[in-house]
Automatic annotation (TrEMBL):
GO terms for biological process: positive regulation of translational termination. InterPro entries: Cupin_8, JmjC_dom, JMJD6_ArgDemeth/LysHydrox. One of its GO terms (molecular function) is 2-oxoglutarate-dependent dioxygenase activity. GO terms for cellular component: cytoplasm; nucleus. It holds the Pfam family Cupin_8. SMART domains: JmjC. SUPFAM superfamilies: Clavaminate synthase-like. The lineage of its organism: Eukaryota, Metazoa, Cnidaria, Anthozoa, Hexacorallia. This is Jumonji domain-containing protein 4. Gene3D superfamilies: Cupin (2.60.120.650).
Amino acid sequence: MDDVTRVHTITYGDFFRDFLLENQLCVFSSEITEDWRSRKEWVTNGKPNLEFLSNRFGYAIAPVANCSQAEYNSQVKQDMSVTEFCDYWKSSFQDEKNKTEVLYLKDWHFCKTPFHADVFRSYSWSANICGCKKWLLYPPGQEKYLTDRLGNLAYDVLSDDMYDGKKFPDFDKARKPITVIQREGEVIFVPSGWHHQVMNLEDTISINHNWTNACGIFKMWKHVQSELKKVEQSIADCKDMENWHEQCQMILKASCGINYEEFIEFLDVIARRRLAALSQRTVYSSQQEDNDEKKTLPAGPDFESYVFEEWKKSVDVLNERQERTWADYCRYDLSKIKECLIGVKNDQSFNDLQNLELQSRVDKLLLDIDISNQIK
């Protein structure tokens, strides 16, 4: 048995307390997916139903990675239609000995991923529709021992190179990874910042989803902040150039996928919805203020449903009886958003941008959150 908490039934409140707040790994039993259409339609005799997948999704274009070729710290990518990939998959069954490459349509087929942590330090869940996976996971903080002498994250933690002290001088300080065998129907919850490497032990199809919430939003901010520091260090020799700080933000956007302005926009959108929920009155959305277009939210039970639509989907899946009120969740979200905004406001790189409009937006949002705390 692997060293991980396995969950059969749980309330959302318990999941929130024991796994989200604690940022801890767990695996849900196959009962949670037993009624999914994908487990019935995408699988035949325990194997991927390639005919169905090709007929149903064949024209869709999907990213495909070549597991046999590394490119920088990732894998060589290409686009293929689902039909083309299914045809490749069928042919690989027939010519296994002469196969020169292993293609991977995320998240299908027999392969392994490079060692990584999920985008923006988000949470993720991965449900095995068929097949079996082996996960190697390291909790946050261990990744510093899994970099080479130049500071680059390892590509494959199972490589013999990891034991070469000249290449990976701190590998012997790393703890052993948590190993998880994920079987058909099971769902693994991967917390924020947990680096991992995954191997499909047989032909496998999974459904994955990345997401974050108030429990993880500050981790996301610290990640974006850390990525900017790397950018600034990499072009420190050009610091005398005009608009150097703005250039750093452009590079941050290209390398990380988000910059400070977009992160603030992300916080603003969520905060405005929570503030509207607490006030239960007509508000201006952050993107509509210039056009003076008002948006009125419903009141009463319909209003609560509007705010917590996504949460209630999770609640239904976990068969949870709501223990907190919608207002409690709104206030919790706003408290964590405020924590991020204070971090942004005190960040030297943010202040060096001298973007008065962005600074004003942060100040206004902080003020509105403080005012909302006075609403009972």
